[in-house]
Amino acid sequence: MNDLIVKLISRLLIPFIQLYGIYIILHGHLSFGGGFSGGALVGSSLMLYAIIFGLKESEKKLPHSVSQFIESFGVLAYIIIGFIGMILVGSFLSNKSAGFSLGEFGTLFSAGMIPLLTLAIGIKVASTMITLLQRLLKEDSHD
Amino acid sequence: MSKKIIIAILFILFVVLSISIIRMPDIGGESNPAYNDVTNYYIDNSREETGSMNIIAAIITDYRAFDTLGETTVLFSSIIAVFSVLSMKGDKHE
After folding, report:
1. Angle A51-A55-A58 (CA atoms, 0-180°, nearest 5)?
2. The pTM is what?
3. Which residues make Cβ contacts (< 8 Å) with residue A81, sequence separation at least 6?
4. Residue B55: how many CB atoms within 10 A of its CB?
5. Any chain A CB within 8 A of the CB of B76?
6. What is the phi-psi region of residue A99: left when phi exceeds 0, alpha when psi lies from -120 to 50, beta otherwise?
7. pLDDT tens figures, A55-78
8. Residue A93, pLDDT above cutoff 80
9. Residues B24-56: tens digit of each pLDDT
10. Does B51 contact A102 at a Cβ distance shorter than 8 Å?
11. Residues from chain B contacting residue A37 (CB–CB below 8 Å)
């Protein structure tokens, strides 16, 4: 898209959208939202960048090799966190009994493995959205 | 003949569904079947057991974390399916 106003405004807005998305992911155990909604926000900001500035610029910021790695890392991190509980206590995805520190109620570093799982889900959702869009744009530019 | 049977079956279905709609509990009513022991258990114990302020997060990533793992796997497999379909090199001169 070759429009000056759209480019300027989106360049201004994208950092704020990403900041809000990261805030929602990190505060998933304290306030509303969580991995899926925060990841959708971060992913949609990356999609906005890809639509406005084109596939080439988008792949310069986030190459396909990196996004593919992040993609698999999200699910893998979730399963590894689950296996920590399995090795220590014997049940998959156990939180308190596996020795995750619950911390002080209501602070950012609390609730044991819940923030870690939320982070893994957020990374997964964001990378899924941007990888899908990049793939579709690439397919379009081939023909 | 078959048209009459279809109309009769549809009418019976209509009556059954109408009765079940009339007998539905009020939205947010206390006699709602969704307010059972499980709900009370989550409200009473999620703070001590998970330490999470957000009960919904406690449910989806602690009590039912296995379900969320399934959801993430669905995302993963869906993108693998899209990739494998889009990167197929089919015969274009057909």
Report:
1. 85
2. 0.78
3. A93, A113, A116, A117, A120
4. 15
5. yes
6. left
7. 888 788 888 788 878 888 888 888
8. no
9. 877 777 777 777 788 888 888 888 777 788 888
10. yes
11. none
